[in-house]
Write a structure and sequence with these properties.
Layout: E1 10-13, H1 16-26, H2 32-54, E2 59-60, H3 69-74, E3 79-82, E4 86-93, E5 99-101, E6 112-119, E7 124-131, E8 138-140, H4 147-152, E9 161-163, H5 164-167, H6 179-182, E10 197-204, E11 218-226, E12 231-240, E13 252-256, E14 262-267, E15 275-282, E16 286-293, E17 296-303
Parallel strand pairs: 4-6, 9-17
Antiparallel strand pairs: 1-7, 2-3, 3-4, 5-8, 6-7, 10-11, 11-12, 12-15, 13-14, 13-16, 16-17
Length: about 300
């Protein structure tokens, strides 16, 4: 995919709730320096947790040491428990920092380290990169690995990736249905499946994430077409489902890089019947398609 793999960091806006939780946890501390550590640690953990949720990696925030009030006060910890993997340390740095210090209590019993730049002036948390170990007690930020290395450490991601070349062979993953099974005839886009192009659809029920989309889910449609042995065209579309004839305003369709960064996005306007984005991808390209509204999102991962 053109320039899709060039962006190797991931930025996320710091929400009001994150600030509120960080402030609450910091006020539990008696020393100003300790309070600042807890404040920044909380924001870093929440940013990494959000990133992994975008990547559909299951985490357990409550089981993390950083969520334990007693351990928060006794130690300088910013870990996030990742299911079936272990504790991932999420270390905060400030803009301009060249080195990320790792406290002694976080140098062992960790599956890896993510360095997160906290920029409160712009309300942004930026995941700068990943390191497998930090035995020396510090990480030189310019030398840490990209987030792609973190992705490679997550074996559970592999089973979630939809191989679009398999679609061209007639092999479809569970959950991906014929468009005719999901969309009414008046909304259904004209299309004919052949050996060179295949189309499948999946309901995206944002209602389950706490969003009332007029009581109806939306449908994500993916169309893959073979251009040559190395290149395929990919088109992502979102249509309303049920009784709705238009999409909710401000619903977004985003294409994500292999690291989870936003490559491009399309936003629904009032009375839009559908939104779409089409691009070419090369063999081996890994990307995500995300449907979101407000702070809730659903992401599907693909590979060509």
């Amino acid at each position: 995919m053109n320039n899709l793999t060039e962006k190797l960091a991931f930025s996320v806006p710091i929400t009001r709730k994150w600030y509120q939780d960080a402030e609450t946890f910091s006020q539990e501390q008696h020393e100003p320096d300790k309070a600042q550590d807890v404040y920044l640690n909380t924001l870093a953990v929440y940013a990494v947790n959000f990133y992994l949720q975008c990547m559909e990696v299951e985490t357990d925030l409550a089981a993390s040491d950083s969520s334990n009030p007693a351990l928060r006060s006794l130690m300088n910890v910013s870990d996030l428990m990742v299911k079936d993997w272990g504790k991932l340390e999420c270390r905060p740095v400030l803009p301009g920092d060249q080195v990320c210090d790792i406290p002694p209590e976080s140098r062992q019993d960790r599956v890896g380290y993510v360095v997160v730049e906290i920029n409160q002036s712009s309300n942004q948390a930026k995941l700068l990169g990943f390191a497998k170990t930090a035995l020396e007690g510090s990480l030189e930020i310019s030398k840490i690995q990209s987030l792609e290395q973190l992705i490679n450490q997550l074996p559970e991601l592999e089973s979630n990736v939809v191989n679009l070349r398999e679609w061209l062979k007639g092999n479809f993953q569970v959950g991906w249905q014929s468009v005719t099974d999901l969309l009414s005839p008046q909304l259904r886009p004209a299309f004919r499946n052949t050996e060179y192009q295949q189309q499948r659809a999946k309901p995206i029920d944002l209602f389950d994430l706490g969003l009332e989309l007029a009581g109806n889910p939306v449908v994500l449609i993916i169309t893959v077409g073979k251009i040559d042995k190395e290149t395929a065209s990919v088109r992502a579309q979102v249509y309303p489902n049920g009784e709705a004839l238009t999409l909710p305003p401000n619903l977004k369709l985003s294409v994500l890089t292999a690291t989870g960064d936003v490559f491009t996005e399309v936003t629904a306007r009032s009375n839009d019947e559908f939104i779409q984005y089409q691009f070419n991808a090369q063999r081996g390209d890994d990307f995500g398609i995300q449907v979101s509204l407000g702070e809730a999102s659903v992401t599907e991962r693909f590979q060509v």
